[in-house]
Amino acid sequence: MAVPISQMWTVASYVLKKRFSGQKRYPLVLMLEPLFRCNLACAGCGKVQYPPHVLKRMLSPEECFAAVEEAGAPMVSIPGGEPLLHPQIVEIVNGLIARKKYIYLCTNALELKRRIHEFTPSKYLTFSVHLDGQRDHHDFSVCREGGWDLAVDGIKEAVKRGFRVTTNATFFDGTDPNSVRAFFDEVMDMGVEGVVLSPGYSYEKAPDQKHFMGRARVRRLFRAILSNRKPNWKFNMSPLFLEFLMGDRKYECTPWGSPAYNIFGWQRPCYLLQDGYADSFKELMETTKWEEYGVASGNPKCANCMVSCGYEPTAVIEGFGSLKGFWGMVRGTFSKYKDPHAQKLLAEWKTEPHAPLVQIETTNRSLEETNA
Ligand code: SF4
Ligand code: SF4
C-alpha cells in the first residue's frame, strides 16, 4: 500500500476513536464536489449532463469549509466536474490543508501543467489524476484524442515539483486486463505514489449504458488484473478492498463512509445515487433510510455496484477496526497474489476491439454555454 504512514495513522486513530466511542455510522472521506462543469464529456460520466444553468453554479470556499467541518472526516476527495476549472480552487485547497485534511484533488489533468505553479507541495495534498488505462484506451474512454498525453504531461510536471500524485482509473466491460497491467508498469515508471481503481457504476444519466458490468464480470476482470502482481506496483487503496474486487471477500456497502456534498446539499445516500438531498450533514445521517441501500437491501440500483466510494470504507473500517482486519491488510500489502488460474485467464483473454473514438463535441459547446 502506497499511503504514507502519517495518513494511515490519522485514519487508524480516527476509526479506533469512533469505535471506542460506540458511534455506529461515521464518514471517512468527504466527497466534496465544488462544481459539475468539466472540460471533458466522458461517455461513462454521470455528472456533466446537467443543464448549463446548473453547470454554471459552484460552491464558494466558505461553503466548502463549512461542509468539511460539519462532516469531520479526516480525508476529503474533490471530484467534480473538473476542480481545476473552479476559479477559487487554490483557496479551497489551502483552506483544507490549514485544517489538516488529507485531500485528493481528482482531475483529468488537462489544466494541471498550466496551473501547477499555483499550488504548494504538502503531505496533505494529492493530485489524483483520472487516467483510464493506456493511451488508446484512455482517449477512447474520455472521448478526447490527445487526452492521455496532456494528462501525462501534467503528472510528470507535478511529480517533478514534489507533489504527491496518484492515478485513478475506472474500468468498464471490454477492458483488456493485459493492457491494464501494462498501464500499471507505465504509471509506476512516471513516479506516481500509487494507483487507484474502481469498476464503473451504471449512472442512469451516462450516455454509454452498454458497458457497465455485473458483479461476476467485475470479479473475473479484477482477478485477472490484480493476481500475480509485479513487485513495483503500488496501490493507493485498502488491500482488503482490492481483495473484494477480486472476489476473495464479501462486503456490504457503507454509503455513509463517503458522503457527498455539492451545490444541491448533502446527497442521499451516496456519491452515485441521487435520492434527494439533506440540508445538513446531521440531517443526512439521521434521516436517510440506510437500510434501503446496498446489495442486501435488494435495491436494484445497488445490485451491481462494487465501487470504491461504497465499499472501500467497509474495507478500511475492517482493516483498522480489528486485529484480524489489520493482519489481513498487512498480509495483503506484501502478497503478490500468486494464482495460476488467473495467469491462464490472462493468456486466454479475448480482447474485443472497440468502435472508433468519438470526440464528443458537446464538450466545447457546453463549456461555451456555461462560460457565457
Ligand atoms: S473527466 Fe470525465 S468523468 Fe470526470 S467529470 Fe469530466 S467528464 Fe466526468
Ligand atoms: S451499493 Fe453503490 S449505489 Fe448503492 S448505496 Fe452503496 S455506493 Fe451507493
From TrEMBL:
<dbReference type="Pfam" id="PF04055">
    <property type="entry name" value="Radical_SAM"/>
</dbReference>
<dbReference type="GO" id="GO:0051536">
    <property type="term" value="F:iron-sulfur cluster binding"/>
</dbReference>
<keyword id="KW-0949">S-adenosyl-L-methionine</keyword>
<protein>
    <submittedName>
        <fullName>Adenosyl-hopene transferase HpnH</fullName>
    </submittedName>
</protein>
<dbReference type="InterPro" id="IPR013785">
    <property type="entry name" value="Aldolase_TIM"/>
</dbReference>
<keyword id="KW-0411">Iron-sulfur</keyword>
<dbReference type="InterPro" id="IPR050377">
    <property type="entry name" value="Radical_SAM_PqqE_MftC-like"/>
</dbReference>
<dbReference type="GO" id="GO:0016740">
    <property type="term" value="F:transferase activity"/>
</dbReference>
<dbReference type="Pfam" id="PF11946">
    <property type="entry name" value="DUF3463"/>
</dbReference>
<keyword id="KW-0479">Metal-binding</keyword>
<dbReference type="InterPro" id="IPR007197">
    <property type="entry name" value="rSAM"/>
</dbReference>
<dbReference type="InterPro" id="IPR017833">
    <property type="entry name" value="Hopanoid_synth-assoc_rSAM_HpnH"/>
</dbReference>
<keyword id="KW-0408">Iron</keyword>
<dbReference type="InterPro" id="IPR022563">
    <property type="entry name" value="DUF3463"/>
</dbReference>
<dbReference type="InterPro" id="IPR058240">
    <property type="entry name" value="rSAM_sf"/>
</dbReference>
<feature type="domain" description="Radical SAM core">
    <location>
        <begin position="20"/>
        <end position="232"/>
    </location>
</feature>
<keyword id="KW-0808">Transferase</keyword>
<dbReference type="GO" id="GO:0046872">
    <property type="term" value="F:metal ion binding"/>
</dbReference>
